[in-house]
Specification:
It comes from Phaeodactylibacter xiamenensis. This protein has 2 domains: 213 residues, Rossmann fold, CATH 3.40.50; 77 residues, Alpha-Beta Plaits (2-Layer Sandwich). Helices cover 32% and strands 30% of the residues. It is built from 10 helices and 13 strands.
């Protein structure tokens, strides 16, 4: 089932088009990452589907319309810096959240265990680190057991330990079967958490699909030798090589269809009259693919 369908969504601020005819589909159970540099329209998109911002054109639909106007009750969201009462502890703050949401039987202890705050449940909010505050905000978004959770830049401003804690928390939530929609420019974190990704820039959708599909399937190898022009020319004419690109750092990047042993590549080069001074198998990351896609637009 599609939990969210976006069709041609557009939002303008004067002469600036923040989101331009964006169309996306998020299926139930997905951990869906919306990637883009700052100012790409991620937050504006989330604001529109949460009825915070009104679109100029286009439409969106939650849960294929099955909840009608009550669809928003089935969505939990964290869009801004968490704001709780500093003199209250985690439980008391969540009690207030449950009252606002009109949730009659919230499972506070279960939520705090999920976000790894159970041991600090009676500590005042003001004693929490920034990462702990963010994890309490995630717990508050889950009050009422929503089917979909939306997070906008959930690791923004955190130190490496805090980022790792949030990432682990989101992974645990995804394992429960919840649908997660996460907007971020921190590509490594999205790659580790999300199963699907959409890349946007200037409000335009550039690419979407599974993380595995967005990342190139090519097997990448870096090589170098004393005669780099000759090395590139030799491998460009080799039918086993899809592409041989000379990088700015002077390294030749080979694109191969199939995984190949380093020893075989070294043997190929030697048979062409080149002794390699550098040989490294490369795993192409989502970050590299993201930068490549956005650079070409």
């Amino acid at each position: 089932m599609n939990v969210l369908r976006i069709n041609g969504l557009t939002k303008r601020y004067g002469r600036i088009t923040a989101v331009d005819e964006l169309s996306l589909e998020v299926e139930q159970g997905m951990a869906y990452g919306i990637l883009g540099p700052n100012g790409s329209g991620k937050t504006t998109t989330l604001g529109m589907v949460l009825d915070i911002t009104h679109p100029d054109s286009g439409s969106f639909e939650w849960f294929e319309g099955q909840y009608g106007r009550d669809a928003r009750r089935h969505v939990g969201a964290l869009l801004e810096t968490p704001n709780f009462y500093p003199y209250l502890n985690a439980i008391d703050n969540l009690v207030i959240v449950a009252h606002i949401k009109q949730v009659k039987a919230p499972r506070f202890e279960e939520l705090l265990k999920l976000v790894n705050l159970y041991e600090r449940r009676t500590s005042k909010f003001r004693t929490y680190s920034l990462g702990m505050k963010q994890r309490l905000a995630i717990a508050s978004a889950m009050v009422g057991d929503p089917e979909v959770l939306i997070f906008d830049e959930p690791t923004n401003g955190l130190d490496p330990q805090g980022i790792a804690e949030i990432r682990n928390t989101l992974q645990r939530i995804a394992e429960t079967g919840k649908t997660i929609i996460m907007a971020s420019h921190i590509l490594d974190e999205v790659e580790k958490v999300c199963s699907h990704v959409a890349i946007i820039k200037n409000g335009h959708l550039l690419a979407s699909g599974t993380v595995g599909a967005i990342i190139s399937d090519d097997f990448l190898v870096e090589i170098a030798a004393e005669d780099m022009p000759g090395l590139q020319a030799a491998f460009k004419t080799d039918n086993r090589i899809k592409k041989a690109e000379l990088q700015d750092n002077g390294i030749l990047l080979l694109h191969l269809e199939n995984e190949t042993l380093a020893a075989a590549i070294n043997e190929w080069a030697f048979s062409k009259g080149h002794t390699l001074s550098h040989l490294r198998i490369v795993k192409k990351s989502l970050e590299a693919e993201f930068l490549e896609i956005t650079a070409n637009q």
